[in-house]
Amino acid sequence: MAEAIAEGFLCPICHKDLRSPGNLIAHFQDLHSEEQDILKSIKDFYGKAKKKILKLDEKDLEIFRNEVRLERYYLEYSEPQDAGQIKSHTDYYKAIRRDRLDHRTAETNKLVIRLDRLLRFYGSDRKQQEQELVAWLDGTTVTRCPSCASSFNITRRKHHCRLCGSIMCNSCSYFLTYETAQTIVAPVHTNNGSESQASESESLRICNHCLDMLECRRRVQIEQMMQPLICQLYNHLQTVKSQVQNSVETYHKVYNSLTSGERTYLLQDAQNLRTTIAKNAEILDTLSKKIASMPIEPDTPKQHNLQNSIRKATSIYIKDYLLTLPAPPTVEDLEKIRAEHAMKVVEEDYVPVMRNNIKKVTVTTGWTPTKAENESDEDPLIEQMNIVKNYIDQARQAQRFEEVVSLQENLKMLKETYMQQQRVKANEAV
Amino acid sequence: MNVISAVKAYVLKMTEESEPGMKVLLMDKETTSVVSMVYGQSEIQQKEVFLLERIDSANYRHSTGLRYLKCLVFLRPTAQNIEALCNELRKPKYGAYYIYFSNIIAKADIKVIAEHDEQEVVKEVQEFYMDYLAVNPHLFSVGLPVCFNGTSWISTALQRSVQGIVSLLLSLKKAPLIRYQANSSACRELAGRIDEVMNKESSLFSYGQNGQPLLLILDRRDDPITPLLNQWTYQAMVHELLTINNNRVNLLNVNPSVSKELSEVVLSAEQDIFYAKNIFMNYGEIGQNIKQLMDQFQAKAKSHQKIESISDMKNFVEAYPQFKKLSGNVTKHVTVVGELSSMVNKYYLLDVSEVEQEISSQNDHSSHLQSIKKLLNNDKVRNFDAVKLVMLYSLRYQNHSNNDIAGLINVLKKRHVSETLTKNIINLLEYAGSHARQSDLFNVENAVKITKRFFKGLSGVDNVYTQHKPLLHDTLEELVKGRLRESLYPYVGNQSNTGRPQDIIVFIVGGTTYEESLTVHSFNKSYPSFNILLGGTYVHNSTSFLEEVEYATRNTSRIHTRNIHVRFE
């Protein structure tokens, strides 16, 4: 028998390779503590070798160390971290605002209610009706218009606000057309535009203060209902984007599953998904272009910036997240991967695979005759399995891969139950 | 303790809290810097923030509104900002407002704002503590180029520094013990004020923290050497020669012929992998790495040139985003390194640096005097570098019986160096001469034999390994070994030593440097159980440092330099 020549950090007593001088010394101290002189000689020898190998003067060693260390100095990408301390003033803020705004809201609501009545009750004597609803201020002591301070006389007469009853001159009066008033009371029928000329007969005389409050309310309402085109386009864009996001996530899952040799998904699945993503990317591209080229009113550089920004962000998204997806493996690649994977599985799960085979064998051999009978009045389990198979096909076509996975699991379970049942029957038959 | 991540987390929370929809981010000058240090515009656009506005810009008030946008407001809680915000809310330009203040705000101010919100547009009012600039994961700055007036604080700068550090502590959830440099009244004052805020806002500062962190406050004047030296690692070198301002480098200043898209380049380790990898690399190594990057780029470009089949085309389109990114980075770094190397050659910076390094770490008066005189006679050496050499000499040999500071200043005068520069030699001695220092900056026994080496790098640039170690290195070494003397670095109030701290925040009043940043980074790498964070009122290079010195000594008379017989107009 030819003795092989071993090399490495061998223990001189048991000839074990310990791979490093440190290990060797430790090994020796632990197991061969009685052989102290050998230990000493190992240590000496190692010390000498070290000196010989590292025959550099200290200075060079220092520089060398510096260099090696500098190699390591770079900045890693910062890992996400939890946000630090936070203090919220929102509740306090809202409490203050509520106190202040309650008053204003109540006032506005009062005005709206009055307006509603004024509109509803017009009939015989309008002036009387109006005064019944709103107490008009007694004008006897008022000599000047409270808002513009001009004195009243024959040419500058006193007028009353129909909503709060206060006094003002004609030039300080504002007129609310019935049409506008209607929209304020019942905002559902908004017919914006069509501002008819405010003539006294078709409109209500009101003061600046009341008009301000009503206008404010109306503006808020209109803004709530109006949704400019850009918002609609943007919402559409975001919906498509979130769909794409889902597809991308699924694609990664499918891709990883395929390249690791699993058979849960078909190659076709990956290809279909990729086509869907590409189609959606195109939609995103078109939508963002549409947003960017939307007409802008003059003097609104902000809107222009916004539109360009959305376009830019979308194209970066497409470039960085959608176009960088790995291509699905080719048929040959996939075959290779699967073959390799199969080998591995066989090696790893050798015993269980064998057992499975045995099971199958007993089932098929034991039950060939009765199986034909069964086929006539289909076993409910088989029927169920066929249905599930059908579902899987459908789900696959609809690219609902999560369902495919769960259905396939169902199918597997059904198969197992079916086999068990068959086995039980076989035993009974025996 | 990563300041970049801390700020990013807050900004992310901001964009997420406001629910989906198009957003505009309304900021002031300082908060714009805070955000731009960690997020690029394209990155923040992915979070639906499509517009960035400045509340303090002249035409903002009269700009049109877009009511369908949500407005994220991120402001410092200053009086002007609160007034501007009230005006904004009275006539809101946007549909909804989410307000975030970068620091602690008074209740009275909240009340004033609430009273102006008549249309109920505000949805959130919160404090998100990011009142500092996150420069690198372990480095932050308050962004104050000057903070001293004479030997004491400019009061607004003190206030701003307190706010900066308080917000830093809150953003990292730390409530540290505080130590400060004993001989510096500025350090003592800052330490006291921070302690005061921590006590006053004790509920904010109560969070479960592991171990007891430490805040160590130092004074720049204890080490005036480090900010004067020429630097040879990438980030420090770029800052010294080209100046980095909020991650941006203006190349137009140094080279008017530079192309338009490169007139200002962004150097951000978060967005530029090449920069992140090379940020602490030596000059020569960067040269090699740039060459590699270029080869890689050329290989890619070549493969793109022969697009013959459909599949070639497809590959091209697929690789295009990375290709574009790569090409942008290549041109950027090639240009930057090109500028550096032309300056190094033009101004004999290797020779200058060699003498600088010798003076900083050796004690040899006559030979140093000779080397300096030799360089002063070289008219290729910049006046600025000449003055810095004399400064280093003066700092080291200030108390040497035969020193020739006056003589050297006269040589400078003969070179027609401007008086502001020469006068700054005296200013620096008044600012940070031996009277102002408590540490042994020129420890003679420690001065090892100099081992500067110049290696020929591949791409023709010399590699330089410098000998100088900032004073901060020794201070940290003593600190992690538990040997930092309490008499020199006392605790604030009745606090006292309770074991060795793992999390250490060092703050340098008067500004820190990128050389010290590298020191801290290497410390963190070699002592993984410690976590050190460095900050300062500013990140100085020699130019900005000398501006601060000049400002601080502007109205003071000569006290410590009367023995130097030079006259200035």
UniProtKB/TrEMBL annotation, chain A:
GO molecular function, one term: zinc ion binding
Boundaries of every FYVE-type domain copy: 139-215
Keywords recorded for this protein, A-Z: Metal-binding, Zinc, Zinc-finger
Keyword field contains Zinc-finger: yes
Pfam entry (one): Rbsn
InterPro entries membership: Rab4/Rab5_effector, Rbsn_Rab-bd, Rbsn_Rab-bd_sf, Znf_C2H2_type, Znf_FYVE, Znf_FYVE-rel, Znf_FYVE_PHD, Znf_RING/FYVE/PHD
Keyword Metal-binding assigned: yes
Domain C2H2-type positions: 9-37
PANTHER family linked: FYVE-FINGER-CONTAINING RAB5 EFFECTOR PROTEIN RABENOSYN-5-RELATED (PTHR13510), RABENOSYN-5 (PTHR13510:SF44)
UniProt-recorded name of the protein: Rabenosyn-5
Taxonomic lineage: Eukaryota, Metazoa, Ecdysozoa, Arthropoda, Hexapoda
Automatic annotation (TrEMBL), chain B:
Subcellular location: Endomembrane system
Matching Pfam families: Sec1
Keywords: Membrane, Protein transport, Transport
Membrane topology, from the record: Peripheral membrane protein
Superkingdom, natural source: Eukaryota
A GO term from the CC aspect: endomembrane system
BP terms from Gene Ontology: protein transport; vesicle-mediated transport
InterPro entries in alphabetical order: Sec-1-like_dom1, Sec-1-like_dom3a, Sec1-like, Sec1-like_dom2, Sec1-like_sf
Family in the record: Belongs to the STXBP/unc-18/SEC1 family.
Protein name per the record: Vacuolar protein sorting-associated protein 45
Source organism of this protein record: Brassicogethes aeneus
